[in-house]
Design the sequence.
């Protein structure tokens, strides 16, 4: 069985049992709902105790449970073709240079981690149509200036002088 086949099996069982993602993530618990759903869709891994809970919930085999605990091959072809996912791509393409400039001005030369990272998704009621609120928080990782000489900083943190 391939990981894509397991994802399809999980989605089939989700439909058959008429489960919502909220019910599933409440049942499995232990980490962010985004990470649980990501794992069930094949983009993340579940630690062994959570893989066992998922396997029980979906009636998976021992081999399938182990597959949920394996590090997956992450990502998708670019640009994405799903309209909602494409909008995220579009946000980065349009706003990315400004986000980069603002982050670098505040923190220095580096990146925001997508590994040491938190994300929350909320619904905000609005009379003109409910809004999606996403809050992202990632650790700042400064670039290391390897081969630096004395007096040159080791890392690209914001310089104060």
Sequence:
């Amino acid at each position: 069985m391939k990981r894509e086949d397991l994802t399809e099996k999980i989605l089939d069982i989700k439909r058959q049992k008429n489960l919502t993602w909220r019910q599933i993530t409440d049942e499995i618990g232990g980490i962010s709902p985004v990470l649980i759903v990501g794992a069930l869709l094949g983009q993340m891994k579940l630690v062994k105790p959570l893989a066992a809970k998922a396997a029980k919930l979906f009636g998976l085999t021992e081999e399938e449970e182990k597959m949920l605990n394996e590090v997956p091959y992450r990502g998708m072809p670019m640009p994405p073709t799903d309209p909602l996912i494409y909008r995220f791509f579009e946000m980065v393409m349009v706003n990315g240079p400004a986000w980069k400039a603002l982050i670098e001005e505040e923190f220095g030369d580096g990146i925001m981690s997508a590994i040491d990272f938190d994300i929350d998704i909320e619904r905000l009621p609005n009379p003109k149509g409910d809004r999606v609120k996403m809050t992202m928080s990632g650790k700042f990782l400064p670039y290391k200036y390897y081969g630096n000489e004395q007096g040159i900083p080791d890392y690209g943190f914001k310089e104060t002088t």
